[in-house]
């Protein structure tokens, strides 16, 4: 990243698991200095995650974040009702939000996964098959958070018994049946034709309308983040244990790669970036 001073309004889109949150403990405390700085400077911080709305709301409360957010891999964008100063078309209203939906609905996703299970005989276990207790122990979540994680609206995380061959077969079937497959860093995901990139693009449009000139940052650590990284000005990939090939990454223009994941790396990266941008 070159050193530059910007007058454009900075907007940060960030993944949560393995990025702002520790991949295993979900801790974010190490990112506190950067989080405080961002808050002080009034920089919008948009969570863009494969987590559900209920889970993201839990972290929004914890982090005192009142910006829009993207749930379930771009399944929906939730915008606080009076956040933007102009009206925009949306699919529904829910609580304090105007909601734009991009995803397929969860019951349809579940049915499709069930059909694939029957057809292929491959042992697949989705979040819907698991109890809260099982999700809690698999993911290292509290029971409350496991309950939030089960509130799927547009995406089903699942596990496959077997190796690459079985996963490839399941992936093929998912695509044949008109849905999408993506690896999220811990689980496989079945979802509609949505991705984080499409959701980020609509928010970029809104922010541009609001601030006229914007500079967007995107940060992620997994394959499902790449569509988001492809549509921002300053994409950052945190390289952890996920095997994303250099070739795939270098196809994303202007990408910065960091050799670490989680809140410590996030903190350092953001503080450096803001410094370089003269913010
Ligand atoms: Mg992640």
Classify the helix fraction into a percent range. Answer: 25-40%
Strand order across the largest sheet: 5-6-4-3-2-1-11-12-13
The backbone outline, from C-alpha atoms, is globular
| Secondary-structure arrangement, i.e. CATH architecture of the largest domain | 3-Layer(aba) Sandwich
Bound molecules: magnesium ion
- By CATH reckoning, the class of the largest domain would read Alpha Beta
Q: How big is the Rg?
A: 18 Å
H-E order: EHEHEEEEHEHHEHEEHEHEHEH
| Low-confidence regions | none
Count of DSSP-assigned helices:
10
Gap between N and C termini, in Å?
A: 15 Å
Summarize the structure.
This protein is of the alpha/beta class. The chain folds into two domains: 9-103 and 196-276, HAD superfamily/HAD-like (Rossmann fold); 106-191, Putative mannosyl-3-phosphoglycerate phosphatase, domain 2 (Threonyl-tRNA Synthetase, Chain A, domain 2, 2-Layer Sandwich). It is built from ten helices and 13 strands.
Note down, in words, how this protein is organized.
Helix 1 (32-40) runs parallel beside helix 10 (262-276), helix 3 (106-120) packs across helix 6 (164-176) and helix 4 crosses helix 5 (143-149). The two termini are 15 Å apart. This protein folds into two domains: 9-103 and 196-276, HAD superfamily/HAD-like (Rossmann fold, 3-Layer(aba) Sandwich); 106-191, Putative mannosyl-3-phosphoglycerate phosphatase, domain 2 (Threonyl-tRNA Synthetase, Chain A, domain 2), CATH 3.30.980. Strands 5-6-4-3-2-1-11-12-13 form a nine-stranded mixed beta sheet, sandwiched between helices. Strands 7-8-10-9 form a four-stranded antiparallel beta sheet, covered by helices on one side. The model has no long low-confidence stretch (mean pLDDT 95). The protein contains ten helices and 13 strands. The longest helix has 16 residues, at 196-211. Helix content is 37%, strand content 21%. The chain is globular, with a radius of gyration of 18 Å. It has 279 residues and is of the alpha/beta class. Bound molecules: magnesium ion.
